[in-house]
Amino acid sequence: MNDVSLIVKVVAYILIVPVFIFGSYVILHGHLSPGGGFAGGAILATLVAMLVITFRDDFKENPHEIFSILECIGMIFFILLAFFGLSSSFFHNFLVNLNGLFGKPVHFGVNPGYLNTAGVIPLMNMAVGIEVFSALSLIVLMLSMRYGGERK
Amino acid sequence: MEVGREMFIIEHLPALVIAIPLLAAFIAPLLKRFGKHAVSVWSILNLSIVECLVIVLGYRVIKDGIQSYAIGASIPSLLSPNGLPVRIILEVDAISSFMGLTSISIILLACIYSACFMKKYKSVERYYSLLLLMAAGIMGMAFTGDMFNMFVFLEVLSISSAGLIAFYAYKGEAIEAAFKYLVISSISALMVLFAIALLYGQYGLLNIAALGAAFRFTILDKIALALLVSAFVMKCGAVPLHMWVADAYGEAPAPISASLVVASQISLYALFRICFTLFGLLPAIQIIAWFIILFGLASMFVGVTMAMPQKDIKRLMAYHAISQTGYMLLGVGVGLAVINDINALNAFGIAAMEGGIFHIINHAMYKGLLFLVAGAIIYRTGTKNLNEMGGLGNRMPITAVLFLIGMLSITGLPPFNGFASKLIIYESVFLFNPILSVVAMIVSILTLASFVKVFYSAFTGQEQSKYKDVKEIPAIMLVPLLILAFLIILFGLFPGIILKLLVKPAVQALLDRAGYIGVVV
Amino acid sequence: MIDIQFLTVVILISVGISTLVFKKNIIKIVMGIEIISSSINLFLISLGYREGSVAPIFTNAPSVKMVLPTPQALTLTNIVIDLAITALMLSLAVLIYNYYGTLSMKKWRLVERCS
Amino acid sequence: MMMTTLSTIRGFWDPVLWMAAFIIVIVITCYIRSLGKEEYKRGTEQTMVFFSGNIPPKELISSSNIYWGFFKAMEKYYTCIRRFHTGMVNDYVYYFIVIVIVIIASLIIGGVLWM
C-alpha cells in the first residue's frame, strides 16, 4: 500500500486545529461575512478528506456510521428551528430583536458586524454546517474507503 | 385550548403538508435501532398524517377559495407587505390540491406495499428516507406559488427518485437507468432555472402570480416559455423526449415505479400551471397549445406501438404510462387551444380539460395497480421476462383478478374508470378535430392488444414446473392492491360525482387566472 | 459595447451542450452538466450587477450602493444543488465502471432490444 | 338522472344502466351456450391446445410474438422508431435541444405572422 511518510502524518496532525478553527469561524460568522453553513461545512470536510488520505490504513472499519447519524441530526435541527417559528408562520425568525440569544437589534446600514444579532439565522447556519460537513465527509469516505479498505 | 390547537393546525396547513414528510425523511435513518419494522411503520404513519392534512386542505380550498401562505412572514396571510410579494408564497388552489391528493395517496399505498416488498433488503432506512423526500418534493411542487421554489422542489424530486431508481445496486442496468434519469432531470432543471433567470432579469419577480400580472410579451418571454414547456414536457415523458421513461420505470423497484408515475404527473401539472396561469394571456399560447396536442398525439401512438413488442413486463407498462400521458396532454391541449374564444371553450374546451384532468387521477390509480401487480409477480417468480412466466393464474388467483381489473380500466372498457375519462376526451376532442379522436380510439385498441398478451403470457397457459411452489402474495402487499381496485371500481361506477366533486373545481381553478393572480397582487 | 457577460454565458452553454451531445464518456457528460450549470450561475449573478457597487454585506461595507442580493441567493442554492447532482452522478459512474468495465455510453446494455 | 350518471356533451354515460344491459346479454348468451352439444368433456383430446396438428410441447409456448403479423406489417415503422431509441443520453439531450429550437422558432415566426 502507498504508505504515507512520517512528515505528512506530523503535518496532518498540526493542520487539524487551524482548519477546524477556520471552518467553524466561517460557519459562525455566516450572518455577518460571506460563507455560512455550506461554505464552512465544506472547509471542515476538507479536514476529513485529509485525514482519510493520510491515515487510510489506521482506520479499522469505515467510520461512515457516525457521519450519517450526524447528518440526520444536523438536518433535523434545521427543520425543528423552522418548526419553532410556527408561532407566527413556518420558518419565521422568532429570535430577532428580542435581546435574547442572537437577538440584539441592529439599525439598517453599515455596521461593524455584531455577532449577537440576526435571530435564528446563526443557529440555522450551525445546523447546515453540521449537515454539510458530515454529508461531504460521508461522500469522501464512501468513495475512498470502499476501494482503499477492501480493494476488490 | 382544544379549538386553539385545531385552528392552529388548519391555519398552517400548506406549510405543514410539505414540512412533515421533510422532517420524517431525516428522522427515518435514525430509527434503525428501534427494530426492523420501525422505519416502515414510521413512514406509513407520517404519509397517512400528510394524506389527512391534504384532504382537510382540499376541503378548505373547495369551501372558501384559494389558500395562500407566506413562509416566514409574521402573519401567514401577509403576502406582499408593500405591494411586492417578497417571501416564498405557497398558493393552493383546486388543481394543486387535486394533484397533491392524487400523488400522496399513491405514495402512501406504495409505502404500505414496500413495507413487505423491501423487507429482505439491508439498507431499508435509506429507501424510506428517499421515498419521504420524494413525497416532500412532489407536495412542494404541487403547492408552491414561487417559480424558484418549484425549481428547488423539482431538483429534490429528481435527486431522490434517481437514488431510488438505483436501489438495485447489484444490477448494472438499474445504475445505468438512474444515471440517464439524472442527466435528463438535471438538464431540464437547468433549463427551467435559465428560464427563471430570464423572467427574473426582466421583471425582478419570482412569484408566479406576480409574474403573470406584470407581463409584457417580449421575445425573451417567448424563449423562457419555450424552455419551460420543453423542460416540463421532457420531465413528464412525452414522446420525442420519452426515452428515459422506459429505463427508469423498468429498472426501479415496483413501488418506486408507481410513485415515479405520480412524480412525472406533477411535472405535467407544472406544465399546465405555466401554460394557463403564467403565460395565459400571451397570444402565442395557441402555438404552444398545438405543440402540446402534437406531443400528446405522438406520445399516444409511439408509446403503444413501442409497448407491443416488449418482453419485459415493467418496460411494457412504462411505455403504456407514456401513451396514457399522451391522453392527458391531448385533453388539456385542446382546452388550451380554444381558451380564447368563449363559445368553443364552453362547447367542448372545458369538457376536454375535464377529461384530461380526470384521466390524471384515473391513470395514477390503475397504473399504480398494474405496477404493484407486476411487482407482486416479480416478488414471487423472480423473473421480469414475459416469456419465462406462465400459468400463474391458478397459483395467484387474487393477483390475477386484480391485474384483470387494472387491465380492463387502462384499456377503457365500460364499467371501469378509464372508460369515463376516455369517453369525455373522445367526445370533446372529436368536436375539435375528428382525426385526434380517431387516433385516440385506435391507441386504446392497441393498449388492449398488448395487455391481453401480458395477461395470457403471465397468468394463463401451461403450468410451469419451476413455479409449482408459488403462493399468493402476503397480506400487507395485498392491501394497497385491494384499495386501488376498490377505488377504480368506485370511480368507474360513480364518475358523475367524482367529476363534480374533484375535477370540475380543478378545471375552474386552472381557467380562473385572475383569481389566482388576485390573491397575491 | 455589447454585454460581454451575456456573450460568455451563451458561449459556455453551447460548449456545455456540445460536450453533452458529442462526448460518449460519462465523466465528460458530468463535466458538460457542470459547465452549463456554472454558466447559468454566471448569468444569474450578472443579472443583479449594478455599476460601481459593492457586495451586499453590511459588515464594514465601504459604500451603501450594493449589488442586488436575490440572484446571489439563487446562485448559492444552484451551487448546492449542483454539488449534490455531481456527487450522485460520479458515484453512479464509479458503480457503472465497476459493473461494465467501460465508461463510454456505446457499450451499455439498456439499448432497445424489442425485436 | 340517477346518482351515477355522467353527462357528457352530446349524451350521458351511466354505468349502472350499462351493467343491467350487460347482465341481460350475459343471461342470453349463457342460455344459447347451454343449448349446445353435451358430449364436451374436459381433459380429453377435445380440450387439447390446437398446435396445428402435432402434439403441443410439454413446457412453455411463449406468447411474446403473438402479434408477429402486426410487426411484419409495420416493419418500416419499427425500424425507423428503433433507430431513435438508441439508449444513449447524448441523443436524448440532442432531441431536447432540437425540440427547444423548434418551439422557439415557431413562437417567434408565429408571433411575427399572426400577432
How would you describe the overall organization of this protein?
The complex is a heterotetramer of chains A (152), B (521), C (115) and D (115). Chain B is mainly α. Chain B has helices at residues 2-11, 13-27, 38-64, 94-117, 124-143, 147-165, 172-203, 208-213, 219-236, 243-251, 254-278, 285-307, 313-337, 342-381, 397-410, 417-432, 434-458, 475-493, 495-511, 513-520, and strands at residues 67-70, 89-92. In chain B, helix 11 (254-278) packs parallel to helix 13. Chain B is globular and about 75 Å long. Chain C contains three helices and no strands. Chain D has one domain (6-58, 72-114). In chain D, strand 1 and strand 2 form a beta hairpin. Chains C and D meet through helix 1 of C and helix 4 of D.
Low-confidence stretches of chain B: none
- Name the average pLDDT of chain C: 87
| Poorly predicted regions of chain C | none
Helix and strand succession of chain C? HHH
Radius of gyration of chain C: 20 Å
Beta-strand percent range of chain B? under 5%
Distance between the termini of chain B: 35 Å
For the record, the count of structural domains of chain C works out to: 1
Strand order of the largest sheet of chain B: 1-2
- Based on DSSP secondary structure assignment, what is the total number of beta strands of chain C? 0
Q: Which structural class matches the secondary elements of chain C?
A: mainly alpha
Label the overall shape of chain B.
globular
Largest interface: B-D, 66 and 52 residues
| Largest sheet, strands/sense/barrel of chain B | 2 strands, antiparallel
Q: Number of DSSP helices of chain C?
A: 3
Short note summarizing the structure:
With 152 residues, chain A is mainly alpha-helical. Helices cover 60% and strands 0% of the residues of chain A.
